[in-house]
């Protein structure tokens, strides 16, 4: 009797301890989630009318060219573009001669040579765009501890994609009254937590001079570089859309003859009437053949 009551008491105590532990864990988890949600709070970017959004639309290649200028003159000082080579620019926003000239302006580390040393040489079409920093430690040291992300797939890696980039680049503001930011941080409501370590990159209209004479306003530069980075994240998008439309066209053309063949081939089977004679029915019922 004593042993049974002791066992029952132990079971009740274990259940109670488990319930308390679960409640504490859920409470801590809720507080942690609330803190994480509060720290990641940001303003949702609006929807902008991009030219390449829908399946029947393609990239604005003039905008891609201008966006590459913005990246090269503004963004490339801190951000890398590891997955884009100079050859990718050919027939996209530059001719082959123009792309070769742009690549030749860059100094690419190569080697080792016959003596075992690395050396610098002019870039070629097969080279990828050079990195602004040699390693992560150097990048953090130059940016107050922040490591600028690679921009090759930034559009795919951020919610709302191009909308987020455009809103971020044009969304720098003075912090609201009562909000004090740590030194080296800047207020941007579209960034998670609203405190970003990147200084405002697009400072004023006319910051760069476009080759085609387009007025380089802040919004125009933000739009162009967002379009360029959207292309960099998916450079085969236009080709994929064309292939998809060709496939849909072929399927549409094959639908009519396929339907006609199906109707003609199966018409005899659908209209066929099977009749059984009395002799066959009688033999079937008797088990005969």
Overall structural class, as computed from helix and strand content, comes to mainly alpha
Under CATH, the homologous superfamily of the largest domain reads Cytochrome c-like domain
Shape type: elongated
Query: Average pLDDT, to the nearest integer?
Result: 84
Q: What is the top-level CATH class of the largest domain? A: Mainly Alpha
Helix content: 40-55%
Individual helix count: 9
Succession of helices and strands? HHHEEHHHEEHHH
Number of strands: 4
Give the uncertain stretches in residue-range form: 1-39
How big a fraction of the residues is strand? under 5%
Architecture of the largest domain, according to CATH? Orthogonal Bundle
Radius of gyration: 33 Å
Give a short account of the largest sheet: 2 strands, antiparallel
Number of domains: 3
CATH fold assignment of the largest domain: Cytochrome Bc1 Complex, Chain D, domain 2
- Please state how the strands of the largest beta sheet are arranged side by side: 1-2
In short:
Helices cover 48% and strands 4% of the residues. It has nine helices and four strands.
Description:
This protein is mostly helical and 289 residues long. It folds into 3 domains: 1-39; 61-84 and 129-235, Cytochrome Bc1 Complex, Chain D, domain 2, CATH 1.10.760.10; 241-286. The protein is built from 9 helices and 4 strands; from the N terminus they run H-H-H-E-E-H-H-H-E-E-H-H-H. Strands 1-2 form a two-stranded antiparallel ribbon. Strands 3-4 form a two-stranded antiparallel ribbon. A hairpin with a 7-residue loop joins strand 3 (186-187) and strand 4 (195-196).
